[in-house]
């Protein structure tokens, strides 16, 4: 079935594109959420007449999403869960839990559609997931799953220390490579 997209849809196309999709996807997702129209003569004419309005609305929504994305930069969530001795959670942390934690922080997030967690997390630790604020705007959010707030703060401090040591090692490695390159140039000059 051919449809006209009314907004950018990842892995499908941009606004105004005529794409072929399976009928069930169109009937159950695209049409009810007003993300597409059937591609026929009448709808093409309607789309072209409303194109400027749709593009203006899209730009406004993208701008709002970019402002929220800047506020969310560097956001670190802490999720407290019960776990066994080996770090295995009793249950799991899903996109819904991350969405709820974001709402507690004051962000209006549709947890099922916007939190892009591939699979539920079933262990303690620090993880990263993407949050889609707009079809064209994504932001990465770090979250730590721990047995208590104190444990989470300790894990975050350990992760920051490890990152700092990794950056120092990379810097040292770069300096060593430069020194080796300088020695190589001196030997070829002699």
Give me the secondary-structure topology.
Blueprint lengths: L1 E4 L12 E3 L2 H8 L5 E3 L2 H32 L3 E5 L7 E6 L1 H10 L6 H4 E2 L4 E3 L1 E10 L2 E10 L2 H41 L1
Parallel strand pairs: 4-9
Antiparallel strand pairs: 1-2, 1-3, 5-7, 6-8, 8-9
Task: Please give a handful of descriptors for the protein shown.
Ribosomal Protein L9, domain 1, 24% strand, 2 domains, extended, Ribosomal Protein L9, domain 2, 190 residues, alpha+beta, 9 strands, 3-stranded antiparallel sheet, 5 helices, 50% helix
Major sheet strand order: 4-9-8-6
Q: Which series of helices and strands comes N to C?
A: EEHEHEEHHEEEEH
Q: Mind summarizing the main beta sheet?
A: 4 strands, mixed
CATH architecture of the largest domain: Roll
Radius of gyration: 24 Å
Query: What is the top-level CATH class of the largest domain?
Result: Alpha Beta
Q: Which band does the percent of strand residues land in? A: 15-25%
List unreliable stretches of 5+ residues: none
CATH topology value of the largest domain: Ribosomal Protein L9, domain 2
Number of helices: 5
Q: Can you tell me the CATH superfamily of the largest domain? A: Ribosomal protein L9, C-terminal domain
Mean pLDDT: 85
**Shape assignment:** extended
How many strands in all? 9
Oligomer: single chain
Helix content: 40-55%
Span between termini: 73 Å
| Structural class computed from helices and strand pairing | alpha+beta
């Amino acid at each position: 079935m051919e449809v006209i997209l009314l907004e950018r849809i990842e892995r499908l196309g941009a606004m105004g594109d005529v794409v072929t999709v399976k009928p069930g996807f169109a009937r159950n997702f695209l049409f009810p959420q007003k993300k597409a129209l059937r591609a026929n003569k009448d709808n093409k004419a309607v789309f072209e007449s409303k194109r400027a309005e749709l593009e203006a609305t899209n730009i406004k929504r993208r701008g709002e999403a970019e402002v929220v994305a800047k506020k969310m930069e560097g956001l670190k969530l802490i999720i407290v869960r019960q776990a066994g001795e080996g770090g295995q959670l009793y249950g799991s942390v899903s996109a819904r839990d991350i969405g709820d934690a974001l709402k507690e922080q004051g962000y209006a997030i549709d947890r099922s559609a916007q939190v892009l967690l591939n699979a539920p997390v079933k262990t303690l630790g620090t993880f990263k997931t993407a949050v889609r604020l707009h079809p064209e705007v994504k932001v990465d959010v770090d979250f730590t799953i721990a047995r208590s707030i104190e444990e989470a703060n300790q894990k975050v401090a350990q992760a920051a220390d490890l990152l700092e040591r990794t950056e120092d090692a990379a810097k040292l490695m770069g300096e060593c490579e430069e020194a080796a390159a300088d020695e190589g140039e001196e030997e070829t000059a002699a």
